[in-house]
Each structure stands twice: as structure tokens, then as C-alpha cells.
Amino acid sequence: MAKKKKRRRPATPPQNRPESAPPPTGPSPVRQEKKAARRERAERARKVEARRGAFRRALIGGFVGLLVFAGISWFNRAPAPTPFRDHTEALNASITAGCGDVQTPTADPQRNHLQSGESYDYPEHPATSGPHDPTPLPDEPRVYTDVSSYRETMAVHSLEHGSVIMYYRPTADTDGLPQKVVDALVPVANGNKATYLIPYPDLPEGTGLAYTAWNKLMTCPASITAEQAVTVADGWIQSYACTSNAPEPKNGPGC
């Protein structure tokens, strides 16, 4: 008996399998976070360094500015006064002429301003410090011949600014300073920094000439000679004109 042939079952077509996702092409989220963190740290470091740089520049600029200010202040500073006794020729001339010693009339000189044009009764004559007019004497003239052409309150302000003033008893007055002495002092006042020559009829008795600076005074008799008066004046100007003896030096004319 013949064997039956087994029918072959048709091949089952392969089932469609889901395709796997393609591998990511960009950086992973973890790497992205790390990269962002690195950028953030770098930006913070840059900002910190920028602030440090700005601080260093500000510090250096401030230091340089301070040096410049100190240099300008040093250059513009008023010189210290020198004792009149250190000017030997002037000292000897004052002794020979019979002048007194250098006085410091006030222990605590006042410097407040009066009202413009206001008068003031000074306890010393001539005044070397005290309340004064808001305006000092003008730069010109340096030589006065008329008592009514100036105010003593303005003269005191000029002394505060480092000026020196030579006061003399008018020649026409009793015990007045001889005209030849006055004439000899005119070029001294006109030719030196911050120096004035002013008539002053209220000088103390026996005084024909007084040399003044801020809170400094030396008086001389009318018998002083022209040569002696000029020599003493030169020493006085070198000692006090435009120096830190005055509260506001360097403000006087010619300082």
C-alpha cells in the first residue's frame, strides 16, 4: 500500500519585529548638565576675577591719586618760619637801633570774621591778630600814605594770610619816623612778597616803627636809621612772610 505524502505547510512569513531606536547622536543629559555646570563655574570665576581686577585698579588709582595729592601739597606747603635771631645781621641792627625783642602778644589769637566794614577795638596797638574784616587788604598798593585809606581790621586779615606789615608813626607827628627812613622802606615793601608799609599814629609811646606778622611784633624807636630799618625789615620778611607762622599762609600777595 502506497504511503501518503505529508503536505508541507506553507512557511509562516516572519512576523514584523519592532525596529530598535537609533542610538542617540547628541551628548547625554548627564554630560550636558556637567558641561553647563562647568560653564557656570567658569563664568563665576570670570566675574570674580573681573571684580578683583576692578578693585585692584581702584586701589592703585586711589594710591596714585593720594601720592599726587601729597606731592602737590608738599610742593605748595608754606615754609616754616625761622627765628628772627637766626638772621644775625638783622638782629644786630635791631639791637643797635634800640628795638625791642620779638613779642608774641596773644596766647590764643582769635580769627573770627566781623561783618564787612564793622569796626573793632583791638587791645594791642598795632593789632597782630584777632577778629577781622572778611576782606584783607588789596594786593595793591603796598605802600600807604594816608591813614584813612585802610582799615586795621583788613590789615589783620592780611596778617592771617601770611603778610607782614611795617607800621610807622607819621613823620609830621611828634616822634614820627623821619621821612628818609620812610623813603628807604618804600622799595622794601614794593619789592618783597606780601609786605606792606602803612602809617599808624597810634603806635605805643616811644615807638616810631613796628614790624608785624601774625601774632608777632617788634617795635623800634624813631631814632632808627634808614640802613638799620631796611636791614631789620629784610630779616623780618625772611623770618615770617608767607610762612606757616600764619594760619592761612600762601594767600598773601606774592606768596
Supply the key terms.
single chain, 255 residues, alpha+beta, 2 domains, 4 strands, 8% strand, elongated
Could you provide a short overview of the structure?
The protein has 255 residues and is α+β, with helices and mostly antiparallel strands. The radius of gyration is 46 Å and the shape is elongated.
In words, what does this structure look like?
- This protein has helices spanning 29-76, 88-97, 152-160, 179-191, 226-240; strands at residues 164-168, 195-199, 209-213, 216-220.
- By secondary structure, it is α+β, with helices and mostly antiparallel strands.
- It has 2 domains: 34-77; 84-240, no CATH class.
- Strands 2-1-3-4 form a 4-stranded mixed sheet, sandwiched between helices.
- A hairpin with a 2-residue loop joins strand 3 and strand 4 (216-220).
- Helix 2 crosses helix 5 (226-240) and helix 4 runs parallel beside helix 5.
- It is elongated.
Write the layout of secondary structure elements.
Layout: H1 29-76, H2 88-97, H3 152-160, E1 164-168, H4 179-191, E2 195-199, E3 209-213, E4 216-220, H5 226-240
Parallel strand pairs: 1-2
Antiparallel strand pairs: 1-3, 3-4
